[in-house]
Amino acid sequence: MLRRYIAPVLFTLATPALSTGCYTGLDAMNELGSGGTSAVDDGASDGEVPEPQDTECTGFDSGLRRLNLREYRNALRALLGDSIESGGFPADNSASGFDVDASLLPVTGVWLATHAAVAEAAVETALAQGSATRDEIMSCTPASAAEEVACGEEILGAFGLRAWRRPVQGDEMNSLIALIDVATSEGDGFEEGIRLALQAIVLSPNFVFKVEQAREPGEVVDPYELATRLAFFLWSAPPDAELLAVAAAGDLQDPAVLQEQAQRMLADPRAEALTHGFASQWLHLDELEGFAPLPSIFPEYDDELRDAMLAETRLTFAAALAEDLPLSELVAARDVLVNERLAAHYGIDGVIGDQFRPVDAAEANRFGLLTQAAILTLSSHPGQSSPTLRGLWVTDRLLCTAPPPPPPDVDNTLPEPGEDGEHQTIREFLEETHLANPECVGCHTYLDPVGFALERYDGVGGHRNTYANGAAIDDSGSLAGQPLEGAAGLSAALAEHPGLQTCVATYAVAYATNRAPGKADSCPVEESIEAGDEIGLRSMFESIVQHPSFAAPALPEDA
Amino acid sequence: MAVFKKMSRRAVLGSSAALVALPFMDSLIPRTASAARGTEPRRLMWVHIHNGMTRRNLTPTQTGSGYTLPPVLAPFAEDNLRDEITVLTGLSNNVATPAGSVAVHPADSASFLTGVVPGSANQPTAGISIDQVAANTLSEFTPLVPSLVLDTNTQKCGDGLHGCVYYSNISWLDATTPAPRQNNPAEVFERLFGGLDRDATQAEIARRKHYKQSVLDHVLDDVKRVEAKVNPADRGRLEQYLDGVRSLELALEATQPTCDPGSPPMDFAGFQQQVEQMYDIVALAFRCDATRVVSMMLNHHVGRYEFVDPPATSGHHALSHGQSAAERQQYEAITAWQIASFASLTRKLRDAVDADGQSVLDNSLVLFGAGHDSTGHAIGDETLQFAGAAVHRNTNLPLFLAGRAGGAVVPGHHRVYNGDPLANLHIAMLQTAGIDLGSFGRDGTQPLPGLSDS
């Protein structure tokens, strides 16, 4: 089945850079024509351009997905209390996409062994005398052996509903109750049997996976499955009691009820997961954690500054979400969000204390998201700014038009300006290497000029008027061949770029439907607005939830 | 620093207790299968280095035995450690050619143990790696831990746009599943020995086993119920789950190691200690026969080595392409540290006593090295410069073996090959453990010859 993957505008705009063979030179590239992109691989780039035959948006493609570690920890805490330990798991792989991608979440032997140990200890902790969770779980006490089954069903039914995000079925309950007999046969009591049953519930695939019933195309998922999709999308956590109650009442598929629940959940503190899950991965903020600017060149950079940088970008996203701002306003935000440390880094006086507050961005020579220190730093080399990496970040993260990676093993390190005696600035160096080399120019004439516009910011996002060696900065650049001046010009051009909203919507849909970005499209968002209209961020997430594709059964590709 | 209590090899070999055959072998090894493989345990380990190693002062100028140790190999001069290693020159990993959206560095790490070219950056596909091929067979001896997949990096990918999954993984369970890595020595210890409770009574142990088995029985029923419910195309993930539950069942049945593992490692302070703790645990795991297969990624593509002399002022990758004399010097210092680290591993394995009373190293074969050369550097081939930049090639790889594999390998030699594929070395390594592969990866066709020549 061919689907609408990428708006044609993206191909058109990016043609000079998009050929898979673009580093073989411009001439060869023009013959090849357009091809796939790196982040948004249309999966049909073998010379065939997909023809839209079918305007239905594609939804989930897996009905059985392991919880990722963020979700797993949230689910375990919701079930067994905040004090449980859940360390020791191998890290999830996210490839170049998001940690929600079903194809990247295997249950390996190591994972399951870790889960078994964590679950056993967590149940132990939750049932310890005096813990609040214990009172919550042990809702009844059988006065006699005759009451054990009824009380066991009450306890395990309530716990199972929360753990499996759906009611426990009769045969499942029978085999759980049988565990109470196992305990009594060994001379232990009712409570030991409950402990075994709770372990079995947590160790079950029904807890570890989001499990969905196989269905035919055209059907819809059941209300519990929809509630689970919704909660893990907006909260990276299981449905709460209210959402489960709505699912139980059977109304969740009613668009008004779904809307009401989505709005309630987006206003809930748990929606912060969209910042830490979606935004951090979309913007590659996690890269900053392992990134170490050279202390010899950037002595001002330390963990406190890094944390302030990350906080600014995350708070900016959270604010845009809360205020339902369109992406154009996120990209060209007029304010910076700073605390004392970050204000000092930006050269802003008069900000005292750790609280973040908005300050007019022009005062700090800042022009929106691209000029936030976190973004500028994570797209730099450890020792200096990199126009190429910044151009790559912008085209990949904001426009979904990144070219393919360089040919066999090129050097992506940069000499210090002036070090080789031949060039004074990184711009001169790149113009002499990338842009003068027929093998490089195809892609780099697209990438580097985007980054040139950000050259007034150093490798940790500090503003500069000249390079360290005194050389003047030329921050004229271009985006898809259109000339522009500096960060202000680039931010304005991006804010107006028709590909921005389409690209970010594609990432949001990939995140919502647990797919790789290359397998997602912006269709649910596009269908919710008039062509050319902007949509606010919160409305974008709501439109994905509201679209019929969000309730459509998962259709695995191999089926 | 030493984490585990160590005994000198001579002291242990001299004591009569060590010569008494330990009982665990009888209970763990199925007689039919073990007959063909000999009764001594065979252990395999692979250690991968990103970004190549310099060949300056690393490669002996003479071949065969009795070669003069080059300066970088000096750590092997002590205690005749040189007699335990084989220096390999002239092997190639030609499959590590960048393809599609995967560049050369991720192609190196992804192909090093798989022998195949990885797929695209977004949809990870490599192939099963040689350590997992070995683990699939040798797991019959160590069902609790078929293999350890180790990593000492705690950083993210660095340049994360292209092929993060390939930078971060050398070991693959199958074509689409990277093997989970563990980078915390204390957690590895817990996994190997955490189930031990020496104070429990037999009755208590039996009761716990009954409970765990009952819980797992319920889980197996749940897996079947879920299988009946979901789309057939999704059932592959349940197969994995089922395998995992069966491993937990095997764990209940398996005899616990009879060795004393001592105390778990403390929290490590810094990368160097982390690496040493990992080596200690490998020696311990082999000595206790807790696993027979290990793969380890020594640091990351963008890893940092501030502690070498002179201190590395850039990341390893940047230095591997460095053009200045200072950068080359730092890169060489990193190579020297890596070799010293290999000597430390070799020593730990030699000093550990295996169940049969032999040195663990005598029963083992360790491959240590890089999937790149260092031709980007002044000492390399200057004709391959690209756009003024330094490049890596996948030929003439810097590779070393430690160990005798029970006599199948005769160490102490510098063996020179003429472009033989790395995959043939993998085939030869598995052959020493009684696993015969007709081919492996894209270009592995036969066991690498000559490793037992004296």
Provide a brief overview of the structure:
The complex is a heterodimer of chains A (559) and B (454). By secondary structure, chain A is mostly helical.
Describe this structure in words.
The complex is a heterodimer of chains A (559) and B (454). Chain A is built from 25 helices and six strands. Chain A has helices at 8-18, 26-32, 69-80, 109-126, 132-137, 148-164, 170-185, 190-203, 205-208, 223-235, 241-249, 255-267, 272-282, 303-322, 327-331, 340-346, 373-378, 387-398, 426-432, 441-452, 486-496, 498-512, 523-526, 537-546, 548-551, and strands at residues 64-66, 209-211, 335-338, 357-360, 476-479, 482-485. Chain A is elongated and about 90 Å long. Chain B is 36% helix and 10% strand. Chain B has helices at residues 9-14, 16-19, 24-28, 31-37, 104-112, 130-138, 164-168, 185-193, 202-229, 235-253, 271-287, 316-320, 325-351, 360-363, 422-432; strands spanning 43-49, 64-65, 85-89, 148-151, 172-174, 177-178, 293-298, 364-370, 399-402, 413-416. In chain B, the strands form two sheets. Chain B has an eight-stranded mixed beta sheet with strand order 2-10-3-9-8-1-7-4, sandwiched between helices. In chain B, strands 5-6 form a two-stranded antiparallel sheet. In chain B, strand 5 (172-174) and strand 6 form a beta hairpin. Chain B is globular and about 65 Å long. Residues 1-38, 158-162 and 376-390 of chain B have low confidence and may be disordered. Chains A and B meet through helix 4, helix 7, helix 8, helix 9 and helix 18 of A and helix 7, strand 6, helix 8, helix 9 and helix 10 of B.
Output the structural class of chain A: mainly alpha
Helix content of chain A: 40-55%
DSSP summary, beta strand count of chain B? 10
Overall mean pLDDT of chain A: 85
Q: Outline the biggest β-sheet of chain B.
A: 8 strands, mixed
End-to-end distance of chain A, in Å?
A: 12 Å
Share of residues in strands of chain A: under 5%
Average residue pLDDT of chain B: 82
The rounded distance between the terminal residues' Cα atoms of chain B is 36 Å
| Residue runs with pLDDT of under 50 for 5 or more positions of chain B | 1-38, 158-162, 376-390
Order of helices and strands of chain B: HHHHEEEHHEHEEHHHHEHHHEEEH
Largest interface: A-B, 96 and 91 residues
Structural class of chain B: alpha/beta
Strand order of the largest sheet of chain A: 1-2
Alpha plus pi helix count of chain B: 15
Helix fraction of chain B? 25-40%
The gyration radius over C-alpha positions of chain B equals 22 Å
